[in-house]
């Protein structure tokens, strides 16, 4: 849920349409109005991804630690 909220707010720009398929077709292989992403967007996206991976690592470590304690 956390990742969905971050993606909705940041990557999907709060639900704005980033690109619209030509002719209203559902085929997203052809996009008529895709914006160019700024360098700042790429830096921010990279930082967010790094933080999410680190948090996932901590959560996995905690889960494994608790599982190992139950085996003792």
Task: Provide structural commentary.
The protein has 72 residues and is mostly helical. Helix content is 60%, strand content 0%. The protein has two helices and no strands. It has helices spanning 2-11, 39-71. The longest helix is centred in the C-terminal third of the chain and has 33 residues, at 39-71. The two termini are 32 Å apart. The mean pLDDT is 79.
Lay out the secondary structure:
Elements: H1 2-11, H2 39-71
What structural keywords apply?
elongated; 72 residues; mainly alpha; 2 helices
How does the overall form come out from the CA principal axes? elongated
* Total of helices: 2
Helix proportion: 55-70%
The helix-strand sequence is HH
Number of strands: 0
Strand percentage = under 5%
Which class best fits the helix and strand makeup?
mainly alpha
Q: Let me know the largest β-sheet.
A: none
- Uncertain residue segments: none
What does the radius of gyration come to? Answer: 19 Å
End-to-end distance: 32 Å
**Mean residue pLDDT:** 79
What is this entry, summarized?
This protein is mostly helical and 72 residues long. The protein has helices at 2-11, 39-71.
